Amino acid sequence: MLNRYLNSEKMLQRALKTIPLGSQTFSKSKVHFPYGVSPFFIDRGKGAYVWDVDGNKYIDFGASLGAIILGYGDEDVSDAVRKQLEKGTIFPLANEVEFKVAEKIVELVPCAEKVRFGKNGSDVTTAAIRLARAYTKKEHVIICGYHGWHDWSIGTTTRNLGVPQAVKELTHTFKYNDIESLKSVFQEHPGKIAAVILEPMNVEYPKDNFLQKVKDLTHENGAVLIFDEMITGFRYSLGGAQELFGVVPDLATFGKGISNGYPVSAIVGKAEIMDFMEEIFFSFTFGGEALSLVAALATMTKLQKLFVLEDIKEKGQKFLDKLNQLLLKHELSETFFVVGHPSWSILQIKDFNGYTSYQIKTLFLQEMFKRNILFLCGHLFTYSHTENDLNALLSAYDEVLALMKKCLYEKTLDRFLECEPLKPLFKVR
């Protein structure tokens, strides 16, 4: 049979000679995609679709790790970028687009009184920690969730090679929806905590007024509350999870969907804390790069005018309702289940009948890619997805779940697997 991923595999081998993992981003690398049954390189994207380097067309539900909210090549965003390109991308002084984007964020985000820009999520989460330390004159921080690659955050994970022990000792973790775990950390380090940073929602909804309890406990201990809204911001709600759940932090960080695929992130918050930006050092050449900022302004304006997020949530909820029916139909609800928000839900897979979740996931991905659905078990809906795209995703699920049931109950998974199974990976959450 003709290898439908021949060019991808050739490019991967070439890339590995000069690029560790063959990709600039861990979540896009070969460790996540089973070799022999997966594409590795995308050639182009338009709307809800992407084409790999072998010419295979996919409906994309990965949304470039959540960075795409309107769709690839959105015309309004592209027009704004083209007009700015004619004027220039970066200058020897600031440009007016910087304060225009800041003003739009202040308009939309409850905690935002002042704004500074970065390029990646890690830029601004790290800036938030530095600000909190400067403001409180304390050094320890407490975290929940994934907050980027910098030492203070990644040092708490199994991917901590190269992080100094002294840095690791300044960061502590707590469990989501478990306020007692946060209390314990405060009790273990009295008077030393500068900040609590968490993703206000990831795979779970906050329960029992959890976010308000976190805020109250953080402030009782003289610390700064930071919401990492890389995922929730400009996807779950225009004002982020803080607007959705009615709990306003001291600082918040945004990125991904804010600019529909252009590299920009933001740290926002109370003026009295943000003013310490004039004392700490957070500065880099491309902080005011104009193309990404005009893309952000065009994106936020469109999200606001067209009620985009309401549309995405409606699509996502319709999908979840029908997917849960399919899981019941195929008697797989105990092996496969879905968590998260309608606009970004995740299929979770459990071990079953002697097979590991990684073996099951490998076959699942193999079969979904064959049916021209591209994702890594996360369903990220965009404004460009249509009813037909939704139906195609559900149809693919129906077919693949039927196969999964047969393989799992008859113990024939190995017979259908066309590659080596994925290996256990470092989990960011």
Would you give an account of this structure?
The protein has about 425 residues and is α/β, with parallel strands linked by helices. It has 2 domains: about 5-60 and about 310-415, Aspartate Aminotransferase, domain 1 (Alpha-Beta Complex); about 75-305, Type I PLP-dependent aspartate aminotransferase-like (Major domain) (Aspartate Aminotransferase, domain 2). Helix content is about 40%, strand content about 15%. It has 16 helices and 14 strands. The protein has a 7-stranded mixed beta sheet with strand order 4-10-9-8-7-5-6, sandwiched between helices. Helix 3 runs antiparallel to helix 12 (about 290-305), helix 13 runs parallel beside helix 15 (about 385-410) and helix 14 (about 355-370) crosses helix 15. The longest helix is centred in the last third of the chain and has 24 residues, at about 385-410. The radius of gyration is 22 Å and the shape is globular. The two termini are about 40 Å apart. The mean pLDDT is about 95.
Q: Judging from the principal axes of the Cα atoms, what is the shape?
A: globular
Structural class by SSE content: alpha/beta
> Which oligomeric state applies?
single chain
Rg from alpha-carbon coordinates = 22 Å
Order of helices and strands: HEEEHHHEHEHHEHEHEHEEHHHEEHEEHH
Total tally of structural domains: 2
Brief overview:
With 429 residues, the protein is an alpha/beta fold.
